[in-house]
Design goal:
The complex is a heterodimer of chains A (about 300) and B (about 375). With about 300 residues, chain A is an all-alpha fold. Chain A has helices at about 1-50, 55-60, 75-80, 95-125, 130-140, 150-160, 165-190, 190-200, 205-215, 220-235, 235-240, 250-260, 265-295. Chain A is about 75% helix and about 0% strand. The relative contact order of chain A is 0.13. Chain B has 9 helices and 20 strands. In chain B, strand 16 and strand 17 form a beta hairpin.
Chain lengths: ~300, ~375
């Protein structure tokens, strides 16, 4: 009897040892693959990052991809305020501030409108509201270039051609389908009984929105703000087509910069300029990324 | 004085008519239970009283004011939901204050009211907590607290206990009864649980397929059910129904049905009920507790009829023993005290309390 127990224990030990070795191997494979993929993602960024500190001569001699032999910060202030783009020699600063002036109001307005739309389409349904929602969803799948000509015409009529305000309007409207979809799907999981209770408690449309829906919304607000901010900041097509010269956002300016007609390519300054252009969305992801993932997986009521 | 009067109320969703002409009234201080199986329209009726559903036709009066098109907030009602519907981002105190804030009640008065209601429901320790930090029973109390701060003309409860476990449900049922006795507010209480309806209500409206089948006090609903549906719905185990025939040859009328051995059971009727039957054929309804073992106490006694039937299954529950008996090809459930419980296979001599038996007309299923 005692023997049998011992043998059984021995077999269990051996099986446990095999299982743990198998788990170790699978861990190594998983982390190896993850590491490799991370390197593939990070290398281009690293190249640009390092080049922004190398001298242009060194880049010319050793090529774009190489470990730095020199370290200087000159390229950054040059890119920010001195470099010539399209004949104007005051760097990317102006375009950077254009983008800031565009992205902040456009993000706030499109998120706010999305919240109200989502609230109405999930909690104050009216005859035909599903059809309205269906049409708004179309915007999610519609490529931006389809709207280019209509926008050019509309902005012309409104007198907003070639202005940052024009781009704000464009991004508010273009972003509406996404923000509405986000909020609508989030608010669907808020129980209707809450709104019924609030109505009996004497709250109306706006009081329910401010006091009950918005306090439940931080996760989806964070998701939407990050989504809109990075989307609008990185957007290039509308910026380059609808605006020109000093009114372009930084994405369009970077392309103009790389096409500046001088004979020598200034890779160091270009690298710095690209990084300046990429910094805000990177920072947003850096600080908000974990809330983004959390918000995407979280329902309204825990 | 009536706190609530409903006249010929109808509700249709598209072509589906879910309420087919409901009449109801609640006197001040009454506790009315709306009971019925799911889909009978009881929750829709409550939502219409609350103003959360529109009225297709008919009239709803709260007090003597017609409220058909009055907003929920202006109906002077308070409601407790099955899901409690507590505002998850607010503390218990904020939950209770929300309605008063909406109505612009002064802060000092809000504080006083919350303190009074919190003491009444013993929820003072949780006032600063959020609903997510409370147990089911505590949330239930808070939901009632939120309704109680209103001092409304009408309390509406929508299956408030069905999310609680069995033990807590019984405790809270008693609490609700105590609370109603203490504050004496007119209450409309929706439930699918006939025990809740029986224990709490001063009058019960039994609903089925969008119609009120019977609206009466619990005793009448239980002992003189208006039709076969009410008789079968109220009571657990439910009433036994037996197809039977009345004969009155040679004096006293009896109700007869075949037994399995080829014999016929012949139970004496009383009180001239036989004369009211529109035809010879009837449905005999006997509640499980009105069957008992023949003994010196009951056999030959006025109102008791005797017969015997084979026992199929015996199910002891401790306090009482259920037994399935064969009446002909029909299974009948009896409820016996453990000391007179039958054994499986026994041909049990029975005494049937015919004073409590019900006869139904098979054509209309109505009580005769």
């Amino acid at each position: 009897m005692a023997d049998a127990v011992l043998t059984a224990a021995g077999v269990e030990d051996r099986e446990a040892a095999i299982a743990s070795r198998r788990r170790l191997i699978s861990r190594i494979v998983i982390y190896g693959l993850l590491g490799l993929i991370s390197i593939i993602y990070i290398v281009p960024f690293l190249v640009v990052f390092l080049n922004s500190f190398r001298t242009n001569e060194e880049i010319g001699q050793l090529g774009l991809i190489s470990l730095p032999r020199s370290f200087r910060l000159d390229a950054w202030p040059t890119a920010w305020s001195d470099f010539c783009i399209g004949g104007q020699c005051d760097g990317v600063a102006r375009y950077f501030w254009n983008s800031v002036a565009m992205v902040i109001p456009a993000t706030i307005i499109s998120t706010a409108l999305g919240a109200i739309n989502g609230y109405i389409l999930s909690k104050w349904k009216f005859p035909g509201s599903e059809i309205v929602f269906g049409f708004m969803l179309l915007g999610v799948f519609m490529p931006g270039q389809i709207a280019l000509l209509p926008w050019a015409f509309t902005l012309g009529q409104l007198g907003l051609s070639n202005s940052v305000y024009g781009l704000i309007l464009v991004h508010c409207i273009q972003g509406l389908s996404f923000t509405t979809l986000f909020f609508r799907n989030y608010y669907v999981s808020v129980p209707d009984d809450l709104l019924k209770a609030a109505r009996i408690d004497g709250a109306g449309f706006w009081r329910i929105f401010w006091k009950i829906m918005i306090p439940l919304s931080p996760p989806i607000i964070i998701v939407t703000v990050i989504w809109q901010f990075t989307g609008i900041w990185n957007e290039y097509l509308f910026g380059v087509v609808l605006n020109s010269g000093s009114n372009q956002p930084i994405t369009a300016a970077l392309v103009a910069l790389s096409m500046s007609g001088t004979s020598v390519r200034t890779y160091d300054v270009m690298s710095a300029a690209v990084l300046i252009g990429a910094l805000p969305p990177l920072l947003v992801y850096f600080f908000g990324g974990k809330y983004f993932v959390r918000g995407l997986t979280q329902g309204a009521i825990k | 004085m009536a706190s609530l009067t409903i006249r010929n109320l109808r509700k249709s969703f598209g072509v589906v008519e879910v309420l087919k002409g409901v009449d109801l009234e609640a006197n001040t201080g009454e506790f009315i239970a709306l009971v019925g199986p799911s889909g009978c329209g009881k929750s829709t009726l409550l939502a219409m009283i609350a103003g959360l559903e529109t009225v297709t036709s008919g009239e709803i009066y709260i007090g003597d004011r017609l409220v058909n098109s009055v907003q929920p907030k202006d109906r002077d009602i308070a409601m407790v939901f099955q899901s409690y519907a507590l505002y998850p981002t607010m503390t218990v105190k904020e939950n209770m204050a929300f309605g008063m804030e909406s109505r612009g009640v002064p802060k000092a008065e809000q504080e006083k009211t919350i303190a009074r209601v919190a003491a009444l429901l013993q929820i003072e320790p949780f006032l600063k907590r959020k609903p997510g930090q409370l147990s089911g029973g505590q949330r239930q109390r808070v939901a009632m607290g939120r309704a109680l701060v209103r001092d409304p003309a009408l309390f509406l409860f929508d299956e408030p206990l069905s999310n609680l476990d069995a033990k807590l449900r019984v405790d809270m049922r008693t609490e609700i009864k105590k609370l109603h006795q203490r504050i004496g507010k007119t209450t409309i209480y929706v439930t699918h649980d006939q025990v809740e309806a029986m224990t709490l209500a001063s009058r019960i409206a039994v609903m089925h397929q969008g119609e009120v089948q019977q609206f009466a006090d619990p005793d009448t609903v239980y002992n003189r059910p208006a039709n076969v549906f009410v008789a079968g719905f109220m009571g657990s185990p439910s009433m036994n129904f037996i197809d039977a025939e009345i004969t009155s040859s040679g004096g006293a009328p009896t109700v007869n049905f075949p037994l399995s051995g080829g014999g016929v059971a012949s139970l004496a009727l009383h009180n001239g009920v036989a004369g009211r039957a529109p035809s010879k054929k009837v449905i005999l309804g006997i509640r499980p507790e009105h069957l008992s073992r023949q003994s010196a106490n009951n056999s030959g006694k006025q109102g008791f009829a005797t017969m015997s039937a084979p026992v199929e299954v015996v199910e002891p529950t401790g306090a009482e023993t259920m037994a399935v008996l064969k009446f002909g090809d029909r299974e009948v459930v009896g409820r016996f005290s453990p000391d007179e419980a039958p054994k499986t296979g026994e041909n049990m001599p029975l005494a049937v309390d015919m004073t409590r038996a019900c006869l139904f007309d098979p054509a209309t299923t109505r009580l005769i």
